[in-house]
Amino acid sequence: MFKALFDEVDSIIARDPAARHRLEVMTCYPGLHAVWLHRVAHFLWKSGLQWVARFWSMLTRLLTGIEIHPGAKIGRRVFLDHGLGIVIGETTEIGDDCTIYQGVTLGGTSLYKGVKRHPTLGKGVVISAGAKVLGGFTVGDGARVGSNAVVLKEIPPGATAVGVPARILHPDLPASDRGTDVNDKKAYFSAYGITPNVDDPVSMALKGLIDATLEQEAKIKELERIVAKLSGAPIKSNANAELKTSEGTEPKRDLDTIKQWLKE
Q: Average pLDDT per run of 10 along the chain, which is 264 residues long?
């Protein structure tokens, strides 16, 4: 029992650079208190004492600012960082080594009783501040959800999801070759679900459109040159050619500016 408690404390120290020692974590981290108190509420819920479990969870919410339904299943070494405003629904299942930041809602979209209404988080999932994960689907192992994202469908393992509604940014994050136990080895961890060197799919689509536009402009100019040559049209004066070149350069310069802005 005590080993499990200290495992959770040590996992918080491994993931939070502000945590200095065990005593500080055990006394000053409401997310840890909420998880510990929830385990008592969940035991009461499974024992058939639903009202007592609900009342205990209400007291936990008043003490920590975190609302966890006593029916929710929470794995080992789950870290509720800051914690204030987190809401976890009845049929939620949270795997080992997950990190959930403040303001997160793990909610349901169905009004039917006795069905799976809330999400299931795999192992090592990171849910960033203000994100909403709504529905009875699965968020795969090692997945990350960006701040204020609204997730309405399943996320594959290792993927990063951002936006409203959430869209997949990167399906294959680098896996740690040092193991998954945060107490024994320093595993790969991205605070607040931030994935480095990953482009937004919307900006990538815009870049593709700009590239296609420039390519089409070049082809049109080449076709105009060939048609003029075949029809025997007179060659335009240098002044007109310079004017045309100047006019054609402006939109290209604008497109290049937009493209550079998207890259940044």
A: 78 86 89 92 93 94 93 91 90 91 89 86 91 91 89 89 82 47 47 58 72 85 81 56 52 61 57
67 contacts: CB under 8 Å, gap ≥ 6: 57, 61, 86, 87, 88
Report whether 158 contacts 171 (CB < 8 A): yes
The terminus-to-terminus CA distance of the chain in angstroms comes to 50
Residue ranges with strand state E in the chain: 67-68, 73-74, 79-80, 87-88, 93-94, 99-100, 105-107, 120-121, 126-127, 132-134, 138-139, 144-145, 150-151, 160-162, 167-170
Instruction: For residue 163, give both structure tokens.
Output: 């936006």
What are the tokens at 217?
Answer: 């402009």
b/e code 114-134 from CB counts within 10 Å (16+ = b): eebbbbbbbbbbbbbbbbbbb
Residues 168, 140: contact at Cβ < 8 Å?
no
Global model pTM greater than 0.70: no
Residue 198: what pLDDT?
57
